[in-house]
Amino acid sequence: KRPASTVLFIFGGSGDLNLRKLTPALYNLFLDQWMPEKFHIAGLGRTPYTDDNFHTRLLDGVTKFSRRKDVDAAKFGEFAQHVQYLHLDAENEADFQKITDLVKAKGGEWGEEPNVIFYLAVAPQLVPDIATKLGKLTLTKEKANTRIVVEKPFGHDFKSAHELNALLASMFTEEQIYRIDHYLGKETVQNILALRFANAMFEPVWNRNYIESVQITAAETVGLEGRAGYYDQSGALRDMVQNHILQLLCMVAMEAPVSFDANEVRNKKVDVLNAIRPIKTEDVDKVAVRGQYGPGVVKGKEVVGYREEKGVAEKSKTMTYAAVKFFIDNWRWQGIPFYVRTGKFLKQKSTNITLTFREAPHFAFPPESTKTWRPNQLTISIQPEMDIRIRFQSKRPGQTMTLDPVNMIFNYDEAYGRDDAPEAYETLLLDVMEGDATLFMRADQVEAAWKVVMPIQEHWENTEPDFPNYTPDSWGPEAADKLITNDGHAWTNLS
Ligand code: BG6
Predict the structure, then answer these.
(1) Which purpose does this protein serve, as stated in its record (predicted)?
(2) Residues ≥6 apart with Cβ < 8 Å to 492
(3) Residue 350 Cα to ligand 1 middle (Å)
(4) C-alpha angle 357/360/362, rounded to 5°?
């Protein structure tokens, strides 16, 4: 069933996010007949554009960034009939009247009250002001019909996130607020719930009795990509760990929800965040490693070190790599380390989660059969490979009993073909139009996640790092390997 009639306002209409992600996603929803029967999209911004110029820019974005290649200009023209550019200076309160006027006009034309969505695809410092002006509009008081979507970063630290939540709560109900974490829209991430809770065979062993450690990697091969203005104020912990990685950790560690009601699922996730053992300042160096890349060679091309990047402070302390060992103090996970890591300019692009199992309780095989013995592992590859693999021991064919670790692999592309998989933003935008907040962050989740990373962030800000400490095209600082090998484990580097 398609969502109800909708008018969608995108603040930052001519910005990068809209061109790369939002419009390609909306256009794909249109092609797949998921857009409402009646919809209208207004890109808002200060730069003047005619609708034609705006459409040309959007088509360019769709051509470059959509998952579907071969963009049909005529078909796009059909979609573009629903899209306009609305010149709006966000600093000028009077301009916001244009929003009310447009909603009224569409309501009149369609003969029904539409849902109204405000998507704030703007720099974080503009969010409070725009939200405040929106909060004053009469139409915002239509609690059931009006929604606001806020992008990451949600706050800069615990305090600012808390303040932003309080500000939003003074104008909108929690049900109206959609805080995006695009990782939650990824097919492979949603499938963690299916794997765990639609099967009887995994959940019984999904706990400290059978699992020895868990690790989550989000490795990127890209560097700063010209985002110094944002990234140098942020760094890997804020950019990736506070949100994406902790959300993955919640998906792996949460208890089974009773239903897929948005609040029920989010209650279970926030329980995990609240159970993460707080890290004491004096322990940060024992459980967390930061890194920053120096100069090097990536894909045959010389690259400058982070501190030499344009727009980055000469002695920048910003980390482009972070690894942390967490513990979750609850019945299911007591004593089990959760190692997480993320970094820019690493050897391979790979986001994956690996659960390593304990040894079999008794080993009757002769010692010489087990030279290549490796523990059981279940690995969920989120991207770019999309698969789930289980490693187990098998007898190598022959007259001796020799055990080998082998993999049983479920591969998405083979099973379904990749073209059918919607992108994260498609799923999330459709959810907003449908009013389903399950895959969005609730206020308490965002704050709990900030609480988890704050002691590390503060300690790192207050101490001098030994940067640069890793070369591009490597697996990050050596200390990050020690963090896990000292405990007798190893990072899973998929090849
Ligand atoms: C964003 C970060 O949230 O996620 C980027 O700001 C990062 O620094 C990106 O590159 C990674 O997203 P994905 O979907 O490419 O893994």
Answers:
(1) Catalyzes the oxidation of glucose 6-phosphate to 6-phosphogluconolactone.
(2) 215, 217, 352, 354, 377, 379
(3) 12
(4) 160
For 257-298, the pLDDT digits (tens) are 999 999 999 999 999 999 999 999 999 999 999 999 999 999
- Consult the annotation and say whether 113 binds a ligand: no
pLDDT value for 369: 82
Render pLDDT for 1-42 as a digit per residue (tens, 0 to 9): 999 999 999 999 999 999 999 999 999 999 999 999 999 999
- 3-state class of 373 per DSSP? coil
Q: Cα(first)–Cα(last) distance of the chain, in Å?
A: 41
Whether 239 is in the pocket of ligand 1, judged by its Cβ within 6 Å, is yes
12: left (phi over 0), alpha (psi -120 to 50) or beta: left
Distance 153 CA to ligand 1 centre (A): 11
Q: What is the pLDDT of residues 421-449, one digit of tens each?
A: 899 999 999 999 999 999 999 999 999 99
In angstroms, rounded to a whole number, what is the distance separating the alpha carbons of residues 312 and 232?
Answer: 6
- Bridge partners of 381, per DSSP, are 352, 387
The residue from 55, 87, 162, 244 that is catalytic is 244
Residue 47 has pLDDT above 90, yes or no: yes
Is the Cβ atom of 187 under 6 angstroms away from ligand 1? no
What is the per-residue pLDDT for 494?
A: 61
| Ligand 1 centroid distance, CA of 262 (Å) | 24
Type of residue numbered 191:
N
447 lines ligand 1 (CB under 6 A): no
CA dist 122 and 452 (Å) reads 26
- Calculate the CA dihedral of residues 165, 166, 169, 174 and round it to 10 degrees: 40
Distance from the CA of 178 to the center of ligand 1, in angstroms? 19
Contact 215, 377 (CB under 8 A): no
C-alpha triplet 76, 77, 82: angle, nearest 5°: 95
Q: Which two tokens stand for residue 326?
A: 């967490």
Average pLDDT over residues 344-360: 96
Cα–Cα separations (whole angstroms), residue 128 to 160, 168, 203: 11, 8, 42
The answer, yes or no, to whether residue 311 has pLDDT greater than 70, is yes
Closest approach atom of ligand 1 to CA 220: 10
pLDDT number for residue 495: 53
- For a mutational test of ligand 1's pocket, the pick from 240, 243, 309, i.e. the residue with the most ligand atoms closer than 8 A to its C-beta, is 240
Length of the chain: 495
- Kind plus residue range of the DSSP H or E element containing 138: none
As given in the structure block, the two tokens for residue 99 are 């929003």
CA-nearest residue, atom 14 of ligand 1:
183
- Pocket flag, ligand 1, residue 220 (CB < 6 Å): yes
Residue 220 is assigned to a ligand binding site: yes
Give alpha helix (H) positions in 399-470.
412-416, 424-434, 443-462
- Mean per-residue pLDDT, 52-75: 94
Is residue 244 part of the annotated active site? The answer reads yes
